[in-house]
Fold each of these.
Amino acid sequence: MKKYFDNIEIDYSYSFSDKTIKDTSYITHGYYTYPAKFIPQLAERLIKENSKEGDIVIDPFMGSGTTIVEAIVNNRIGIGTDINEIAFLLSKVKTTPIKNTELVTEYAKFEKDLPYKLDGRFDYFLSEAQKYIPENERIDYWFLPEQKDKLSVIFAQILEIENKNVQNFYLIAFAQILKSCSIWLQKSVKPTRDHKKKVYEPLTLFLRQSKKMIKKHHEFDKKLSENIKENIDLYRNVSCGDSRNLNCETEKASLIVTSPPYVTSYEYADLHQLPSLWFGYLKDLPEFRQKFIGSAYKNRENVDLRSNLANEIVSELKNKKQNEVKNYFADMLESFEETKRVLKHGGRACIVIGNTEFQGVKIKNAEVFQEQFHNIGFKTHNVIKREIPSKMLPSTRDPKTGKFGKISDKNIKLVYPTEYILIMEKL
Ligand SMILES: C[S@@+](CC[C@H](N)C(=O)[O-])C[C@H]1O[C@@H](n2cnc3c(N)ncnc32)[C@H](O)[C@@H]1O
């Protein structure tokens, strides 16, 4: 019988419960609200305790790039990939040093030009700006016509910036305000419209967000060593791709620090659809969803999960869920095999993962992953149980609406209140 992790004591030193939002959004960490991102202090600790300066640290599911930022500010080489273009753009911006003067100059142009361009009397700017908006009916689904027009004028001016790094920086500021400027039900993880939503002023939000980011980018620039700043492309390599095909030579990396997607926990493809629509990344949503591990929208037959526990769990599930969970474990196994390829012997993989439940069946992701790792040539270095900091990962949501709420609400069920950090070592 397999040993489960239920009885492991919580290690409160990993909760970082004393950290404020200010602490967790230091340097570039707070640019964009990325669901299920982990707090930088966790990534930093895992990096410092399991690697040394100059080592290669990889995050195969980099999301908002937390691991990569922490890798480079702690003098490691950071390599990351994510299937989501927004994650890629975000991670790139968060790890690219940019001269403060360049950001400030462009900001001054926004401040000067945009109020004039957005003055309703100048239809010319609007018709010019409309050329930049990708044709997609879903933009009209999410944005009221007036908001869409205002956003278009801002978007067009960003796209006219010649310096790509500066342009990308402002695209992220733009991406961050989109949800507030749309009729997306603000606190929902499911794409739901709210026709009564308060309408925000896009220009005010954009300037405020940009200003905040400029300050933070300056802090990031100061924290980065001169050598890394000047040779950034040698120290960080981020890409948009699959976790099963990492951008790293065989047996070169020392450490993996990652939090993989959860099976059908969030539809990441859906969650980032607002910026994806504007940036023209989203041509075909159903096709895009298929690429995500943990997505409900795919199918796989006859696979060896390399875990008896995984087989037991799958056999207890019914209907669609059975296939979903099987696909998830199969995809994750392939991803672990890829981490094995890139890691040196003695290199470690730190996997941050929570367990969940479907149809009354406990989905013991952490235990399954440990078994899969053992079966492909790793040993366990440590298993840590930690509390999830509610400031970063909302821990309560209504199972029907997907809306986050207070613990006291009666419909609200706690999701992932604790999670595990598996530290596996390659033999
Ligand atoms: C839990 S999030 C990671 C969050 C990240 N630790 C952070 O701090 O922002 C999981 C990520 O896995 C990505 N993902 C899903 N399927 C993937 C795949 N096949 N290859 C690479 N990334 C994938 C999702 O886009 C999502 O960004």
Note: The first strand starts at residue 56 and ends at 59.
Amino acid sequence: MKERAKETAKNAGVLLAVGILYYLFYRLTDIGFKCPLYELFGILCPGCGLTRMITSLLSFDLKGALYYNAAVLILIPLLLAVGISYYYEYIKNGVRSLKRWHKAALIFSAAIMLAYGILRNAFEIGLHPSHGEMLGFLIY
Ligand SMILES: [Zn+2]
């Protein structure tokens, strides 16, 4: 159990460190990941605006976070609950398997993201393709 806890903490630490480095790089340079879907076709994928959403959230700008990617923002607590529950079971019992509610939550999240991806391009729900051209910034 202790080994699994160490392994999980190490992996979470690496993931967090990469996230912090990317965040600092983005804040210092204003260069972020460019969405290939947006670059090629001018449409927003369900994940577009994620970096700006997280940056807004870290600046306690909830309105900005909702504008950039409302779907991911709303799904964060659910996805965190799935991740924590999954790794808690792994650390405790050594079993890596998704429970029924994990699968249901992931399918629900995928459905929300798919719907958001379609609706955000059709209607002006927060960040919209026309805003990127109008404001002259790259969307990431
Ligand atoms: Zn995208």
Note: The CA atoms of residues 65 and 107 lie 23 Å apart.
